[in-house]
Every structure is written in structure tokens, then in C-alpha cells.
Description:
The protein is of the alpha/beta class. It is built from ten helices and seven strands. The chain has helices spanning about 15-30, 45-50, 60-65, 100-110, 125-135, 145-165, 185-200, 215-220, 225-230, 235-250; strands at about 5-10, 35-40, 75-80, 80-85, 115-120, 140-145, 170-180.
Amino acid sequence: MAKIITYINEKGGVGKTSVCFNSAWYLAENGERVLMIDMDGQKANLTFFAGIDQYDNLKTMVHVLKHDGDITETVLEVTANLDIVPATAEVSSIGMESKVSKFRKALKSLDDFYDYIFIDVSPTPNWSHYLSLSVSDFAVVVMLPDLASLEGNKGVFETVEEITETTNPNLKIAGILMNKAVSRTVLAKQVLEMAEEMAQENNTRVFDTKIRNAVVLSENISNNEGVTSYSPKSPASDDVRDFVKELEKAVAE
Ligand SMILES: Nc1ncnc2c1ncn2[C@@H]1O[C@H](COP(=O)(O)OP(=O)(O)O)[C@@H](O)[C@H]1O
Ligand SMILES: [Mg+2]
């Protein structure tokens, strides 16, 4: 059965899309079958990172959620074991007329084909957040060591609580991932402490692995390649591999 995981924060530029892409890539390298779904119509960065041409007449989740289309018609291959449902601007139009049940049914039909389904969302809390969390087994909250990300986390935890009480009682937060981590500054230490408190209050934890700030993590995406194959020996690749190992454990429980 595919594990469905949404990467989320109500703040942009924290690395949701990069972490989603690099983790999916590494799992696929290891022989896991992974599908990424781009639900960010504002930017469609995941689609861009994967090297898919935006103007190539793409079918997106709009085909499934608004036009009752077959999800298999939207799936494109990225590498062996790694596929994507791309996004274009039209994905921003997904609204309340799109029902959770339809999304759930579409993913259910892919259950035998994938080990992991990763969903990337926009920073702005919108209907896509609600839909994505409603169909997910887990959320991974990605944050930077700053106060704005903490605020973004708060919004996510409120949304998650609402969703567990309504559409998806099974939703769990796999953990909070600190990205572009620095450990030296007073602020970074305090933000980490506050994130740990927040995690505890919400029955989750901050992942032991932190992803460092590394140039290679902006270079790999312009090469449309996960960091673990773009620069396998880089310390940033170690971070991604360590994070994925932790994630696999967290979602296996
Ligand atoms: N750990 C990191 N070190 C350096 N650059 C990073 C790191 N994580 C993300 N980036 C860069 O930061 C930018 C924003 O990341 P992105 O994943 O698009 O964030 P989000 O999806 O949260 O908006 C991208 O250009 C990405 O390459
Ligand atoms: Mg993004």
C-alpha cells in the first residue's frame, strides 16, 4: 500500500519542494516506486525541478478533480521508479467543488503501483492544502530556523487538527524538518527549542536530521536531478539520505 505524504508549511521558500523532490529521488534510487504530485499551481516548482516543460499541454490534477478524468492519463515518467503528476497554473483553480472522495479514489487506484506518493503544495493555505492533507497518511512540516516559519507551522497544526476531526482521522504529522539549518546563532537555537515544544504539544517531533544550507541544493534542481545523484558525496546528500531513513521509520510505525 502506498504511503501518502504531504510536504507542507504555510510559508514559502522554506524548502518544501526541494525536500519533497530530493527525498522522492533518493527513495526511487533505492528501488522504491515513487509518485510525486504537484498541487502548487502558483509556482509548479516540483514540475520544473523534475524537468517537465510547463507548456507541453500537460494534464494536471484538474483533469482528475474537476473533469472526472483518469489519473493515469496525467502521470509522466521522471526517472526509472519516479513519476510525477505535474502542475500548471490551472491547478490554482482547484476549489471547493473538488471533493476529497474523488482525490482519495484516484490515489486508491494507484495503490498497487507505488510505495510512496508525495504531494507538494503551495505556501498559501487553500483548498489544495485541505484536499492533500485529507488524503494523506502523513504530513512532513518543513521549516527554516526563523520565526516566520514557526508562525507557518502554527497554521499547519491548526489545519491538521481540523482535518483529523473531520475528513481524515488517520492523518499524522511524521515530524518537523529543519531546513537550511544553522546551529550557531542564538536565534536558530531558540527557534529549534520552540519547534521542539510545538512538536511535543502536537504529538510529533523534530527530525534528528537537519538539512544544511548548501549551494549544491540549489544547483541540483537546475540540473533536474536529485542531489543524491547530482552530488552523491556532498554532505547535503548525506543529510537527505539520513532524513529519508528517519522518514521511512516514522511512517512505518
Ligand atoms: N538546504 C538548502 N540549502 C540551500 N538552498 C536551498 C535549501 N533548501 C532549499 N533551497 C533553495 O531555496 C529555494 C526555495 O526552496 P523551495 O523548495 O522552492 O521552497 P518552498 O517549496 O518551500 O517554497 C530554492 O531555490 C531551493 O533551491
Ligand atoms: Mg514549493
